[in-house]
Amino acid sequence: MAPAVPLAVLALVALVAPGLGAAPGCDHPAHRWCSSPDVAAACQVQGRCPSLPSPAAAPVELSLYYESLCPACRQFLVLKLFPTWLLLPEEMLSITLVPYGDGPRSHGACLMNEAKNFRTYFPVIFCLESGTSVTKNLEACLQIYAPEVDSGRIAACVQGDTGVALMHHNAQVTQALDPPHQYVPWITVNGKHTDELQAQAEASLLGLVCHLYQGEKPEVCGSSTAPKFPAGCRR
């Protein structure tokens, strides 16, 4: 790694020999070379700017393909996915939920469509999957976690063309999986599915995410183990 050079030295170099020490085409004065990661990259002096923050690490991307009220899906979502999401900072874990298959799955799709924001609809889905009936518990779960969301609009979506279109989209996304999904819950991590990743996610999702994340890790990322969940709802 190149030694850090004080800004004063960089400025002096620029005054004595303009253009020396920075990349051709760098149109920033020397005292601005270390002002931001973008400027440092444009002038190719990142190694001389020790005060620059490290680039943000990409979040671990997890997609869950599931059926509403499927016992194994509920176990994973309620006991693993939701608690892990609560424990970790938002920048560590990005979650995509794809409800499709048997059961009242269009309620979840319509809820996501109406609420828009993941932080709004995920607690509601957690509440619904924690209960025994999506249709009976929807109003109560909305009142607790997302009172600003109109249950009437969700009902209209479920019963109308919007719900059909949303489920058609989820069907296409699910059927495009490679390898094809064979059961639910079907979990992909950073766009990939393997038996090993599935088993690790079901056994200790927190540990898996902490292991895969390349950025600075919070204290909660210690040794975390949990019993492996039963196999998914195979067809």
TrEMBL record:
Signal peptide start and end residues: 1-21
Location in or out of the cell: Secreted; Lysosome
Class of this enzyme: oxidoreductase
Domain of life per record: Eukaryota
One GO BP annotation of this record: immune system process
A single GO cellular-component term on record: lysosome
An example Gene Ontology molecular-function term: oxidoreductase activity, acting on a sulfur group of donors, disulfide as acceptor
Pfam families: GILT
Main subcellular localisation: secreted
InterPro entries, sorted: Interferon-induced_GILT
E.C. numbers: 1.8.-.-
UniProt keyword list: Disulfide bond, Glycoprotein, Immunity, Lysosome, Oxidoreductase, Redox-active center, Secreted, Signal
Described function: Lysosomal thiol reductase that can reduce protein disulfide bonds. Facilitates the complete unfolding of proteins destined for lysosomal degradation. Plays an important role in antigen processing. Lysosomal thiol reductase that can reduce protein disulfide bonds. May facilitate the complete unfolding of proteins destined for lysosomal degradation. Plays an important role in antigen processing. Facilitates the generation of MHC class II-restricted epitodes from disulfide bond-containing antigen by the endocytic reduction of disulfide bonds. Also facilitates MHC class I-restricted recognition of exogenous antigens containing disulfide bonds by CD8+ T-cells or crosspresentation.
Subunit structure, interactors included: Dimer; disulfide-linked.
Protein family membership: Belongs to the GILT family.
This protein's name: Gamma-interferon-inducible lysosomal thiol reductase
Originating organism: Zosterops lateralis melanops
Lineage: Eukaryota, Metazoa, Chordata, Craniata, Vertebrata
